[in-house]
Amino acid sequence: MDIEASEQTAFLPEQVEGILMAAIDAVLKNEVYVEAKAQHWVDSICDKCMAGLHSLNKPFKYIVTAAVIQKNGAGVHAGHSAFWDIGSDNLCQVSWPTDKMREQQGSRIKCIVTAFGLSL
């Protein structure tokens, strides 16, 4: 199989990570945590992620989940389990803010986004 052809039809987490981070940044960059806005933020982030993934024009069904929580010193754990074709299906999970942004970001928001790519 041609490597270039397989990359064009593969769900590459390295390629998807930028899309997810850009969507989170667009929605949360200048926000301060307000519980009443959390559901709207989640909807906006998921919509932007889906639009970005769709623009890749790859043969996948996508599932995007997002969690927006208030940073208060408690830990957060996220886990996933799947039964799929490991040759074509994959996932990408990002956490925002990144380690580099943590000192600069005083908004008290933590966001975790997961995108699943399931081949058709």
Short description:
This is Tctex-1. This protein has 120 residues and is of the alpha+beta class.
Following the backbone from N to C, one meets helices and strands in this order, namely HHHEEE
Integer count of domains: 1
CATH class (first level) name: Alpha Beta
Overall geometry comes to elongated
CATH topology: Ribosomal protein S3 C-terminal domain
- Oligomer category: single chain
- The CATH architecture can be named as 2-Layer Sandwich
End-to-end gap: 18 Å
User: What summary fits the major beta sheet?
Assistant: 3 strands, antiparallel
Structural class: alpha+beta
Give me the CATH superfamily.
Tctex-1
Poorly predicted segments: 1-5
- Say how many strands there are: 3
**Tally of contiguous helical segments:** 3
- DSSP helix fraction: 25-40%
Radius of gyration: 15 Å
Main β-sheet, spatial strand arrangement: 1-3-2
In round numbers, the mean pLDDT is: 87
Strand content: 15-25%
Organism: Tribonema minus
Pfam family, one: Tctex-1
GO cellular component, one term: cytoplasm
Protein name: Tctex-1
What does this structure look like?
The protein is of the alpha+beta class and 120 residues long. The chain has a single domain (3-73, 83-119), classed as Tctex-1 (Ribosomal protein S3 C-terminal domain, 2-Layer Sandwich), CATH 3.30.1140.40. It is built from three helices and three strands. It has helices at 3-8, 13-28, 38-54, and strands at residues 60-70, 90-96, 109-119. A three-stranded antiparallel sheet has the order 1-3-2, with helices on one face.
